[in-house]
Amino acid sequence: MANQIIKGRDLMLFNNDGHSYAYATNHTLTITAETTDISSKDHGMWGGSEIARYTWEITSENLYTTEEYDALFTTMMAGDPITVRFGLKQTPADPSMNVADGNMALPYWTSQNTYYEGKVVITSLVANANNGENATFSITLTGNGSIKKTTPSSSVTAPVISGTTPFADTTSMTISGPQGASIYYTTDGSTPTSASTAYSAAVTLSATTTIKAIAIVGGVSSDVTTKIFTKNE
Question: Which of 90, 122, 150 is the last residue of a domain?
Fold first, then answer.
């Protein structure tokens, strides 16, 4: 397979839940190797070096929203390391949805299952408010330890949909999943995503309904579970 050229719009910065930071316009990941001079008489005219340590940082430029800036400000003031991901975004269930058409639900983009991940501290947060232009902010995330390429080695267990079917009047539908998972479901037969309805409690069904559900752990999604609840007519 030929190498695929990646478009800048598809390579993004994500939080530990696998959701993108809102309204970003540019991301940069820089990995630097610091060297030590090991030149000796044996090197002659040429110097010699060896890598002493690695450092890394991510910078991001974003359109300013109060919610996003305030959340990052709070994190920076706390001074605690946070986990971030740098990688490709997933294709949404409905690629036609976009901010320009008023689809403002965020975070919208989620990461694919393979990405670069590490802990960072926020070392710079700069707000820009130029007259006649959209307000923006830039952020610098400095690596705290290593950055690693992560490919999940195990899949997420698919959720279990329970409830009586067929049923006469109404039935109670419940969904269970692996520990720590977020569960999302649909009732119209469409494929669920992290933008679908989040499951939190039993749902009462009063008509024939197709339920589809997924479990997500750390941005990794399970296979889809499907169950049809049929009402006796």
Answer: 150
Which one-letter DSSP state was computed for residue 191?
A: P
Q: What is the CATH number of the domain that holds 85?
A: 2.30.110.20
Dist CA 169 CA 132 (whole Å): 60
What's the CA angle centered on 51, arms 48 and 53, to 5 degrees?
150
Domain final position from 125, 150, 175: 150
Give the pairing of strands 136-150 and 220-221. Answer: unpaired
Q: pLDDT tens, 31-73? A: 999 999 999 888 888 889 999 999 999 999 999 999 899 999 9
Q: Are residues 45 and 132 in the same domain?
A: yes
Residue 130 contacts by C-beta under 8 Å, 6 or more apart in sequence? none
Same domain, yes or no, for 170 and 120? no
Cis peptide bond prior to 81, omega within 30° of 0: no
In degrees rounded to 5, what are phi and psi of residue 219?
A: 85, -5
Q: Which DSSP state fits 199?
A: P
Question: Of 152, 168, 165, 20, which Cα lies nearest the Cα of 99?
Answer: 20
Residue 1 lies in a domain: no
Answer for the pair 209, 166: CB distance below 8 angstroms, yes or no: no
Closest CA to 109 of 192, 180, 9: 9
pTM assigned to the model: 0.62
Verify that 28 and 68 share a domain, yes or no: yes
DSSP state of 179: T
pLDDT tens-place string over residues 81-105:
999 999 888 765 555 656 566 554 5
